[in-house]
Amino acid sequence: xxxxxxxxxxxxxxxxxxxxxxxxxxxxxxxxxxxxxxxxxxxxxxxxxxxxxxxxxxxxxxxxxxxxxxxxxxxxxxxxxxxxxxxxxxxxxxxxxxxxxxxxxxxxxxxxxxxxxxxxxxxxxxxxxxxxxxxxxxxxxxxxxxxxxxxxxxxxxxxxxxxxxxxxxxxxxxxxxxxxxxxxxxxxxxxxxxxxxxxxxxxxxxxxxxxxxxxxxxxxxxxxxxxxxxxxxxxxxxxxxxxxxxxxxxxxxxxxxxxxxxxxxxxxxxxxxxxxxxxxxxxxxxxxxxxxxxxxxxxxxxxxxxxxxxxxxxxxxxxxxxxxxxxxxxxxxxxxxxxxxxxxxxxxxxxxxxxxxxxxxxxxxxxxxxxxxxxxxxxxxxxxxxxxxxxxxxxxxxxxxxxxxxxxxxxxxxxxxxxxxxxxxxxxxxxxxxxxxxxxxxxxxxxxxxxxxxxxxxxxxxxxxxxxxxxxxxxxxxxxxxxxxxxxxxxxxxxxxxxxxxxxxxxxxxxxxxxxxxxxxxxxxxxxxxxxxxxxxxxxxxxxxxxxxxxxxxxxxxxxxxxxxxxxxxxxxxxxxxxxxxxxxxxxxxxxxxxxxxxxxxxxxxxxxxxxxxxxxxxxxxxxxxxxxxxxxxxxxxxxxxxxxxxxxxxxxxxxxxxxxxxxxxxxxxxxxxxxxx
Amino acid sequence: xxxxxxxxxxxxxxxxxxxxxxxxxxxxxxxxxxxxxxxxxxxxxxxxxxxxxxxxxxxxxxxxxxxxxxxx
Lengths: 678, 72
Hints:
The complex is a heterodimer of chains A (678) and B (72). With 678 residues, chain A is mainly α. Chain A is built from 28 helices and no strands.
């Protein structure tokens, strides 16, 4: 293309994006088409990629083919392998895409589609993509070092240890909250529980096949595994209807929580080939397939959004999660806008496979833009639903009651008119006994996906299949994360145990293994169980805590980038990481402080504890407690949650302190314009 | 676009298929075995070349052995 044509194209993309953003932002009281969300997002990513990432690549980091990547310098054919740009793009995207970008936007939809959509787009372009991209480049220049190692080597040993503790704490709350999402989706749902349970024998079969029958034939057995999974999905309905088998797979929340705790323990002490690896194959391929399917579904059907642009719940009284738009929207949607976890991935296997340094731009910045688009699709899937239906699905039973009539009345009183008939009919359409209070985002996403996909393929009859397909996908993915995460936590704990007893720290030590795994499972299991039995709490109060944790990790990564900019003589451009860092710090610290001390009991843990305590003094029992002893336990829960929030705050503040210390030490020791080399 | 002959388009499709497969394997932590073999032959001549099965087991342990931090 000639220069003039190129310029005209980019002006066209920018204008189109601006018009679409304008329509998304300014339309009120009339439904808009999902196409505008898609166009606004895609044009913003294209413009951000073309101009901002180019600026960072060419002017700030000066990416160059002359900087030999670790894949060439340290090539070993295993970890360090120069890899085709698009193959590596696929690998990196598969590693960063998870359940998070699909769930956060669904929860944020309670405030309307506009606030979440804007944060997803703007956050990705200026924060998330930038973080992933720069961490990838720095890790590549430092021979593929991990984030933890880079923090230790550049910001000092103490900073490294504090970051490690932060990562362990995030892990615990992440696993608990993701587990809660699965429990909420599967409780009293025999169809869903059966298909998810079937993933265990299918994974075992795959594991043994790859170990003993045809070792290492990943593709063929994965195809068989997915076919079996689809059979289980179709057969699930018959199992659920069966008078003997139906009740066996109809489990309550606490039963499911225990099942997951036992599964989590077993799967993480088993050899990896038996359970962990085959599950990972299944969930990776199912995830890529689902994302592609959803994208095609949305593009083919171009549904209308039934949600208002902005709902009354921006004031913080929403039933899905408690807390006002600022700061809670910005921590509710983490993955999709900016996710600290990506910093771990960008400094993991990807930098070791980079063929040429300039390719970090499309792999780092580009993959995150695509992940952000997944979040836009999740927002679309949630907001094509009737708002009344959405709130009936996402409000805790403590607020809307347990019958369709009560729920319809309460939700209609909030201003989102819905009839009990629609609620029961929707449940019947998707093959469930009830869809009330299925909080946690996965069932809502499943309903939205079922609506979109069934209008593309299969019509009304396919609703139930697509609903359970989406639930299966979410649950399979989350259970895989649970196994992997428990293992990570186990080894972190064993590292710590090694200080007490070197014997327990050895990874081959069975007592050490069992002890550390038990501690890891007990940690997330505690929060999981607490969320499951609380009719008001659960997702409502724990998701924000997870959001704080995840954004805290992003703040740590951006603090590191800032220090590294100073070290490598890039102080002139330090606003690139510092602008998103400042915003994240404002949001995380405000949210952390509010979760601890906010006067409203729905938001602040301490005021909630005080409310219970006041009732306890008068001898009154407040729901969900059934006795005074239970009241005392709930008060203890509140204090534990508050302590965890305080730990997150302390980690962030400590990291800022280490950051300032490093910058002061580095200033004067580096020269502006010094070659950017590690 | 430049016109491709039958042979050439078949090669392009074969290459794309190869890349997709490579991507899918790498998503599960399996790099190219052929590349690994070529590496061992050129850099460590004389060293025995591990079988695909041994390579596969080593990679699986490397990916999952210490747990992997995967994204939410």
